[in-house]
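task queued by scheduler; priority normal; single chain, no ligands, no partner chains; default sampling; output format set to structure tokens
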Amino acid sequence: MEETKRIIRGFFSHFFTVANLRDEDDIFQLGFVNSMFAIQLVAFIEKEFDIVVDDEDLDIENFNSVNALAGFIGRKGAGAVSSAD
């Protein structure tokens, strides 16, 4: 799971400073997310972790923090993680 979190943080770092971002920080509440970023995040998760994000998965609770994303990816049964960063 730590590798998954590292990859997520790497993706975030392309869009905003993550130096002080804790794994439980809500990126929506902190104002880091706009509609374009949300679409890019879903596309990244699908491609990087080889999973399909279904309509019923589009719940803010699945995407609002590094911890939430890592848990979601784990529940979706992500297999091997790629190294595209």
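post-processing summary
- The first helix runs from residue 2 to 13.
- Residues 62 and 68 are 5 Å apart (CA to CA).
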